Amino acid sequence: MLTLTIGTFAIALNHILLISALILATLVGWRVAKRGGENPESVLFSLFLLGMLAARVSFVLMYWSYYSNDWLQMVDLRDGGFLAWPGIVALILGALLYGWRRPALRKPLSAGVITGLVFWGMTSLSLSVYEKGTRLPDITLRNANGEVVQLADYQGGPLVINLWATWCPPCRREMPVLESAQRMRPDVTFLFVNQAESMQSVSTYLATQGLNLDNVLFDASGRLGQAVGSMALPTTLFYQADGRLINSHLGELSQASLARAMEPFDTAPAATRKPTCLASATC
Question: Which domain holds residue 238?
C-alpha cells in the first residue's frame, strides 16, 4: 500500500507519517510542558519548516545540474525532492539553539523532538522494508495493438512503470521527462500503463503532443493500481531485474527526482536479459 485514498483524495503514506510525527511531537511536548515548562508547539512547527527547507535546499544543491537552467523549478515541491538527513541535522541544531536561549523550553522541546524523530524514523523504515519486499504483480494488460500481454514478460532488467491518464495534469507535465529518460537510458525498460482510457483517445493524445513512447499498455479496470496499493495518478514504480520494488513515487516527477529514484539501477548487477518491445505506440 503506497497511498491512502478516500474518495477522490489520495495522499502518500510517507507524507502521512511525516505529518503524524509532527502531531505526536506536539502532543508530547504539550503534555511535558503541563508539568512545568513552556509549550513548544509553535517552536516545533518552526523547526519542522526549517528541516523541510534544509532538506529541499540540500536536494537542489546535490542535483544542481537539473535545476540550474530553471530556477522556478527549485521551489516546485511537487517533485518530492528532499534529502532527509540534512533536514534532520538542521532540525536538531535548531532545537539546541532554542533550548540554549530559552531554558523553559528545554525539557518539553527535547521530549517532542525525540519522540517525533523516533516515530518517523521507525515507521518510515518499516514502510520502506515492506515496500521493497513486494514484487512485480502477476497481471495481464493490453498493448497498443489490443493484444494481451503479461506484465512479467518485461521482467529481466531495470523496469520503470508509470501509471497515468491523459486527463491528469501532473501526468501530462511529467511525460516529456519520462520520454527523455526513456531515450537516454536504453538499459532501462519504461512502461506507460494508461488507466481506464480508450486506445484511440490515448493514441490521439500522444500524436498531438508529439510524444514517442516505446511501451504503452492499457489497464481498463485499474487492476495494476489496486495491486500495488496506489489509485492516485501519476504513480511511478521502480523494479530491479528480479522483479522486486526498490522505489516508488507518487505525484509529478522532475528530472532531478527521477534521476534520484533511478540511482539504484546504476549500482545494480547487469541484467541477464533485456525485455523486448512487446507493446509500442509505433510498432
Answer: 140-267
How many angstroms separate the CA atoms of 47 and 51, rounded? 6
Look-up of cell digits 541544531: 93
Asked if 234 and 152 touch (Cβ cutoff 8 Å), the reply is no
Angle at 260 between CA 259 and CA 265, to 5 degrees: 80
Q: What is the DSSP string of 256-280?
A: HHHHHHTHHHHHSPPPS-PPP--S-
Number of domains in the chain: 2
Tens-place pLDDT, residues 165-174: 999 999 999 9
Q: Which of 190, 189, 213, 191 is closest to 203 using CA atoms?
A: 213
- In one letter, which amino acid is 265? F
Q: How would residue 274 be classed by pLDDT, with cut points 50, 70 and 90?
A: very low
- Specify whether the CB–CB gap between 280 and 216 falls below 8 A: yes
Half-sphere exposure of 219 (CA within 13 A, CB side): 23
